[in-house]
Transposase (Actinobacillus pleuropneumoniae serotype 5b), 102 residues
Amino acid sequence: MTKYNSPFKQQVIEFYLQNDKNRLFTQRHFQLSKKTLTRWIAQFNHNGINGLAVIGKKQKYSPEFKLTVIQAVKKGQFSAESASLHFGIANSGSISQLVAHL
């Protein structure tokens, strides 16, 4: 179960946009961490409202896909956070774990 659902994320982004993109004000209003809000804004900017969708089940990725992601991060093409946006992986922590194990 996810901590925040899609309608809540959308509400946060709408508030952020309506308040001159003031991150600190939005963070405090919704009691969110800077990292969480920054990730949601990046997801919204990259994929629009669909970027805020909550995936109901744990995603499974093929070994080939994992290798592609790991290689891109190791080559310096992406940080773990930007790779998660680019490759559509909900949690950048998953990428960090994959990279650390190699």
In short: Helices lie at 6-18, 23-30, 34-47, 63-74, 80-87, 92-100. Residues 8 and 52 are 9 Å apart (CA to CA).
